[in-house]
Design brief:
Radius of gyration of chain B: 22 Å
Strand content of chain A: 15-25%
Largest sheet of chain A: 7 strands, mixed
Radius of gyration of chain A: 25 Å
Strand order of the largest sheet of chain B: 1-2
Shape of chain A: globular
Number of helices of chain B: 15
Number of helices of chain A: 18
Oligomer: heterodimer
Distance between the termini of chain B: 9 Å
Structural class of chain B: mainly alpha
Largest interface: A-B, 37 and 30 residues
Number of strands of chain A: 23
Chain lengths: ~500, ~350
């Protein structure tokens, strides 16, 4: 074993009542690629923030490169040789590749000509596998994957000892992903240590030496990647059963679909998709980030444009145009980003609840205040939002309560179909269980619920039936006993494995 | 966080103010109010019935325009930078129709009340229709995703050019008596000018519309979060059109009232005759801002705008009575805008106490 570079012991981090990390030990040796995996909310991002100096409010010991450290800011961590490539790029699109590489940090000349920067940048571009890129062109002309590589080139220009890559391939296509993986290989051979955070298990096995699994803020001792396989890794990630939190599944009679999706082709999905939704069921759309599930839901609701296709709904054939059309037909859609388009944060909670049904609570253009209050109160109680809080701004609510309002507002239109993308993102465990219960109750009352989620536990346990997607392709359907995490993971991470086809061949 | 069950016996105003607002806000507002009250007491002739009437009458024309513009701002569509140009085009249209050849009474006989009224109604209705079209076009462009600043700057040039071309850049005047004197200079109730009454009525109607109608609620929702508005079935396209029409019609109404007052029209009237800064558009935007309406939309009211108009007008009046020149008054308006933006921003931040 190589010499240790970083060692964290008994790291604890609490945000209010939420224990994000409950005593995590983490280590990485020099020249090692360490995979960091875990479910959403397991504490990966908190741990990464602590390592890279963004979060100093933790307890526990932090040892790096021979000394105990206590970084107060990311800048200090950077000076000590820890660099992080976050999911969001921090490049300036209009500046050239070379200028972006030498944007800020140590060892950057105060005055320099463009040609000098370009000469200096060539080495680093070679190192990340971008030798074909002209350093004088603006970053905006590169593909997203190449931009990620430029970001990494900028980091290694400061010669860090430890590089953290936080889901570098989440938003990338296959060829760009391969570039990233090759780069990691090269950096490792150059003696750098790399923490590789990813949801894509196939990649983890391809490049990591050891794997640390985080689960509910605790970790398993790191194990060598060659001693594990996808099955055992998934088992470690999921650990215990979380069955209690989820309402029992029901067997829905597939007699008459209420909504038939007929060759719907949203932007961002490789090929048209078709499936049926039945009354009273919870249908799950399983897939990782970039698999197309969120595009499909928002396309059904009319929020995003579609290239082709139509919907058969309640004996009517129509092409979704705007959310207004679909709301009129009582199809509700709750997006994954409540702050963006789910809530009016600056407006009272009451107005949030009644927003989709303004027309029905109004009489000849005037809002019927008592009717608004009574229906809103009723829906608030169903979602366990305290009715006394209705006049408050929605922005003061916690994440869980905000999500309940974002979802609860759709009760006001008495939906026949409700489409929910990531029903519990950024929601604490208590509110999670409540949301599952409400979705299940809605389904039992005859509403068709369609849930898209990247959370493997949720998508395994909540829906009655599952349709799986992988990188914009509809893979298959699972129901009954086949709805287990193993099958789902196989479908959504590496579906062509058994057929013996490499992913790149399929997409080429 | 606001208490819902306030026990009236234990209700302590000062305690609540202390709890709800930061010390900085309290100090700033206190200094401001003190200055204003001292100014009001020590300025001769400020607190007279005549002067109060003057203040409100001065506030009326810019106030009505600002109320219209408030709808645009609240709906998240920023400002119409073409307010004064819409008014300029409208005043030319109105005066042209009031003095048109078909209005033949002036050479032969004394006009009847009926023919005067008819002329006025035709001129006013056509002017308001023109403004509706002007507002609707701008609203459609903004609603389709055009940047409000770019669209309305372009529209401003268009309208001003049209008005200037149409009038040959001349002053158009029409002879008294005409059917619009009651609006310009008349007073039906005691000695309160009708334009003041119109201002108050419009202010009340606008506020009631925003508070109690479906449309009003949609204005706030779309303004607070356009994406969420779209997701819940309230598109900004129709909203932008409606709000721009409201603002344009208010501008045209002001143009009609002003033309009625002076029995004439010129495209430059709204560039030079109004408020201390002289530019009507700037003045109207200043009023919306001083009222504490959020530039980003979704927060504010036309009541605030109306109070803002009266407020700016009274400061201006106070400074005139104390012999300040126009430069100092422009400075004062500028300071007030900066001041109110800071105070309202602090108040808003304070109210966002997170759970």
């Amino acid at each position: 074993m190589h010499e240790k570079l970083l060692e964290l012991n008994d790291i604890k981090r609490e945000y209010g009542a939420i224990k994000a990390l409950r005593g995590v030990n983490f280590e990485i040796a020099r020249g090692e690629v360490m995979g960091l995996v875990g479910e959403n909310g397991a504490g990966k991002s908190t741990l990464v923030k602590i390592i890279s100096g963004f979060d100093s409010g933790f307890t526990g010991s932090y040892w790096f490169d021979g000394e105990t450290r206590n970084f107060k800011s990311p800048l200090q961590a950077e000076h000590s040789g820890i660099a992080i490539a976050q999911q969001e790029l921090s490049l300036i699109p209009t500046m050239s590749v070379a200028e972006n590489i030498f944007l800020v940090g140590d060892g950057i000349p105060t005055f320099s000509s463009k040609s000098k920067l370009i000469r200096m940048s060539l080495d680093y571009l070679d190192e990340v596998g971008l030798s074909h890129v002209d350093p004088s062109i603006p970053v905006s002309r590169l593909s997203v994957g190449e931009q990620h590589l430029v970001e990494v080139a900028r980091l290694i220009a400061h010669d860090p000892q430890l590089l953290i890559l936080d889901e570098p391939t989440a938003a990338l296509g296959e060829s760009d992903s391969i570039r990233i993986l090759n780069m990691v290989e090269r950096l490792k051979n150059a003696g750098k240590s790399i923490i590789y955070v990813s949801h894509r298990l196939d990649e983890i096995f391809k490049i990591c030496d050891r794997i640390t699994v985080l689960r509910d803020g605790e970790n398993q001792a790191p194990r060598a990647a060659r001693d594990m396989n996808v099955d055992s890794l998934v088992e470690t990630m999921l650990g215990f059963e979380l069955g209690d939190m989820y309402p029992p599944k029901t067997n829905v009679s597939k007699s008459k679909p209420i909504l038939k999706i007929d060759n719907l082709w949203p932007d961002g999905v490789l090929e048209p998709v078709s499936f049926d939704v039945y009354e009273g069921e919870i249908l799950g759309l399983a897939g990782q980030l970039g698999s197309g599930t969120s595009e499909i839901l928002s396309a059904i609701s009319g929020s995003t444009k579609i290239r082709a296709g139509k919907l058969h709904f309640d004996g009517e054939v129509f092409r979704p145009g705007t959310p207004k059309d679909t709301i009129k037909r009582r199809i509700a859609y709750c997006s994954e980003d409540r702050k963006h388009d789910g809530l009016f944060l600056g407006r009272p909670i009451m107005e949030n609840f009644s927003a989709p049904s303004l027309e029905t609570i109004s009489r000849s253009g005037i809002i019927d205040a008592s009717r608004e209050l009574s229906t809103t109160k009723e829906n608030a109680i169903k979602f366990t939002v305290d009715p006394a809080r209705l006049p408050q701004e929605a922005g003061v609510l916690s994440g869980g309560n905000q999500q309940k309002v974002a979802l609860g507002k759709w009760l006001s239109i008495n939906p026949k179909v409700i489409l929910v993308n990531e029903p519990t993102r950024g929601v604490d465990v208590g509110a999670r269980a409540e949301i599952y219960e409400i979705l299940s109750a809605l389904a039992n009352s005859g509403v068709a619920v369609v849930v898209a989620s990247t959370d493997i536990q949720e998508i395994t346990n909540l829906p009655d039936r599952i349709i799986t997607f992988y990188r914009g392709v509809q893979i298959g359907e699972l129901s009954g006993d086949d709805c287990n995490s193993k099958n789902i993971l196989e479908h959504i991470t590496d579906p062509f494995h058994e057929a013996g086809i490499a992913i790149s061949e399929v997409e080429a | 966080m606001s208490d819902l069950n306030i026990n009236p016996r234990n209700y302590d105003l000062f305690k609540n103010i202390k709890r709800d607002y930061s010390p900085l806000v309290i100090v700033m507002v206190a200094i401001f109010i003190t200055t204003f009250i001292l100014g009001a007491i020590f300025t001769d002739d400020f607190l007279t019935w005549f002067n109060v009437k003057t203040i409100i009458r001065d506030a009326a024309l810019v106030g009505i325009m600002a109320i219209g513009l408030t709808f645009v701002t609240l709906s998240g569509n920023f400002f119409l930078l073409s307010m004064k140009e819409i008014a300029a085009l409208s005043i030319i249209c109105f005066a042209t129709l009031m003095s048109a050849d078909w209005n033949v009474w002036h050479d032969t006989v004394e006009p009847t009340t009926g023919s005067l009224a008819m002329t006025f109604i035709v001129a006013a209705v056509i002017t308001l229709l023109l403004a509706t079209v002007a507002g609707g076009l701008q609203g459609a462009l903004i609603g389709l995703g055009g940047n409000p600043i770019v669209v309305t700057l372009g529209a401003a040039g268009l309208f001003f050019g049209l008005g200037s071309w149409w009038s040959d850049n001349l002053v158009l005047s029409f002879r008294r008596p005409h059917g619009a004197e009651w609006l310009g200079t008349g007073s039906l109730i005691g000695d309160i000018p009708n334009i003041t009454i119109a201002f108050l009525i419009i202010a009340v109607i606008a506020e009631l519309t925003l508070r109690y109608t479906t449309f009003g609620r949609q204005v706030y929702l779309v303004g607070a979060n356009r994406a969420a508005g779209r997701a819940t079935g309230h598109e900004n396209f129709g909203m932008a059109i409606k709000c721009c029409i409201i603002a344009s019609v208010c501008a045209a109404f002001v143009a009609i009232a002003f033309s009625a007052q002076v029995s004439s029209a010129h495209v430059n009237y709204f560039s030079s005759e109004f408020g201390s800064s002289g530019d009507m558009t700037i003045m109207v935007i200043a009023i919306v801002m001083v009222g504490g309406n959020s530039i980003m939309g979704g927060y504010g009211s036309t009541l605030r705008t109306s109070l803002g108009a009266i407020f700016i007008s009274s400061i201006d009046n106070m400074m005139v009575l104390n012999g300040f020149n126009s430069g100092a008054r422009v400075l004062a308006v500028g300071l007030m805008i900066v001041f109110s933006i800071i105070v309202f921003a602090l108040v808003r931040r304070g109210s966002r106490a997170v759970e």
